[in-house]
Amino acid sequence: MQPICAAIHDLSCYAKSSLTVVLPVLEVMGVEACPLPTALLSSQTDGFPSYYFRDTSRDIIGILDAWKDLGLRFDAMYSGFLGSSDQVDLIKAFIKDQKASLTLVDPVLGDGGSLYGPVTEQQVKAMQGLVMHADVITPNTTEAALLLGRPYQEQFDAPAALSWAKELGLATNAKVAITSVPLGDGNVVACYAGGESYLVPYRKLEVSYPGCGDLFASLLLGFLLRKESFQRSVELAVAFTSKAIEATMQAGYEKRHGIAVSLILPYLAKRW
Q1: Is the pTM of this model over 0.85?
Q2: Cβ neighbours, 10 Å, residue 89
Q3: For residues 104 and 198, what is the distance between their CA atoms, to the nearest angstrom?
Q4: Which domains can be identified in the chain, with CATH numbers?
Q5: CA 244 – CA 258 distance, rounded (Å)
Q6: pLDDT averages per 10-residue partition of the chain, 272 residues
Q7: Which of 172, 223, 243, 264 has its CA 20 to 30 A from that of 22?
Q8: What are residue 182's phi and psi, to 5 degrees?
């Protein structure tokens, strides 16, 4: 049987990010993904001067109650953007109740040294508690700084990148993949797992699109559920994310459209 995953993230009705990235990727990778929308947005927020945003906490309560009545159990949990600090408490309780074999938390808080538009300092504090219940966390450098209570860094050397990953891993008891770490002329994913820190390098591309972090985390979860090692899963997730960015660039999409995930689905499908 296919593994079943609760996909906890926002739903942007235009432009590719969050659930519109997560769901097709997990499904192609052989994972039955059950969406739990944490917010409803008219579009993703990067590059749009205004947008509609609705916190769906009341809906989450109703959905979780209905799922509990049905006796649903999930093999995996994917937690992404959460619309409020109260939602963090809801999802924390859901994760603790499910006791899934694999829980990935992507602590979606900000990028480029700044918080995303709807995110508050209260949510940051709540997220610092949620990651303590994860098996895997995938922050970018902004989110890693927020989780660690450190200043944001625009550039790293290898010892600093390894140190951040190890510090997060020891603090949370989770496997760590810090994404988009700028190091020299390229980027790395700074990892900590099994008591070891290591870097997974990749070529720095000219542009990054909204939804790249969602794509990486989805791929990582999918490969882990296929019983790949953590390091190999990170390497494969990096490769497919880079391929998606290149394909989106070649297709001529504007940045705010988000990552064109449909362009790599055929390549993913060939692996199964």
Answers
A1: yes
A2: 15
A3: 19
A4: 4-266 (3.40.1190.20)
A5: 11
A6: 96 96 98 97 91 94 98 98 94 97 97 88 96 98 97 96 98 97 94 98 88 97 97 98 96 95 94 74
A7: 172
A8: -75, 125
